[in-house]
């Protein structure tokens, strides 16, 4: 990998990224494994060796659930590194290259999960989503993630006029109040802050600044954020 494909980051930041990546892999691998079902060959074998037993009720095929899961996995990996990138002239190029690396990582994870599942005669192929379609779902989600980050590079000055900066002394209290309300809802939906921003069609940094207590979003932005969460705007903490 060329250094121009990625900014130079401090050792501490590299460590934070490493920890985040490991946590994300640990969280999503079991979810992929849970999607695996008996292969058609294994089902046929079951019927032959136990013809008098009632076979288990087949699980509905869920190709769209697979697409969503792969997209969430890729988006989480993307966000964990992209948030540390400086807003330099190469920012958009770095995001593109990061998306390519994340695509490879997720597909590699799928391959490893499938290899492990082969010993239990289970596979993700049950859901009729071939590898090219998996890759397409990953790439589609990452394009949205890139867009969510890139919008602040292109519209930074405009976004700044839509938000008021919170006094420094109150930022910590605001962050605690906002996180206490928002994080359980994001956890229930399986969303990261980036995924929330994407669902609300709001720039990532705008959402991140709101959650961290740095800024108060413009009223129309609050409406978008609340709508994505399924609550009214007046329920979002000030």
Could you characterize the architecture of this molecule?
Residues 154-162 have low confidence and may be disordered. The radius of gyration is 21 Å and the shape is globular. The chain has helices at residues 11-35, 40-49, 63-82, 91-118, 131-161, 171-189, 193-200, 204-211, 219-229, and strands spanning 37-38, 122-123, 164-165, 215-216. Helix 3 (63-82) crosses helix 5 and helix 5 crosses helix 7. It is mainly alpha-helical and 238 residues long. The chain has a two-stranded antiparallel sheet with strand order 1-2. Strands 3-4 form a two-stranded antiparallel sheet.
List keywords for this structure.
two-stranded antiparallel sheet; 2 domains; 434 Repressor (Amino-terminal Domain); mainly alpha; 4 strands; 238 residues; single chain
């Amino acid at each position: 990998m060329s250094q121009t494909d990625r900014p130079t980051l401090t050792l501490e930041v590299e460590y934070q990224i490493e920890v985040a990546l490991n946590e994300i892999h640990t969280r999503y691998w079991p979810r992929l494994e849970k999607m695996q079902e008996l292969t058609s060959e294994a089902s046929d074998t079951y019927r032959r060796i136990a013809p008098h037993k009632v076979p288990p009720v087949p699980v509905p095929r869920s190709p769209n659930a697979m697409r969503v899961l792969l997209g969430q996995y890729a988006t989480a990996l993307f966000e964990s590194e992209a948030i540390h990138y400086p807003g330099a002239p190469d920012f958009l190029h770095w995001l593109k290259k990061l998306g390519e690396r994340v695509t490879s990582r997720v597909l590699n994870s799928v391959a490893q999960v499938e290899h492990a599942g082969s010993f239990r005669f289970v596979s993700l192929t049950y859901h009729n989503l071939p590898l090219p379609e998996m890759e397409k779902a990953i790439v589609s989600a990452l394009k949205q993630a890139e867009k969510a980050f890139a919008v602040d590079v292109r519209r930074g000055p405009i976004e700044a006029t839509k938000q008021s900066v919170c006094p420094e002394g109150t930022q910590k209290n605001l962050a605690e109040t906002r996180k206490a309300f928002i994080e359980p809802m994001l956890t229930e939906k399986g969303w990261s802050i980036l995924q929330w921003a994407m669902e609300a069609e709001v720039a990532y940094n705008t959402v991140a600044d709101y959650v961290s207590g740095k800024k108060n979003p413009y009223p129309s932005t609050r409406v978008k954020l609340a709508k994505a969460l399924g609550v009214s705007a007046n329920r979002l903490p000030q």
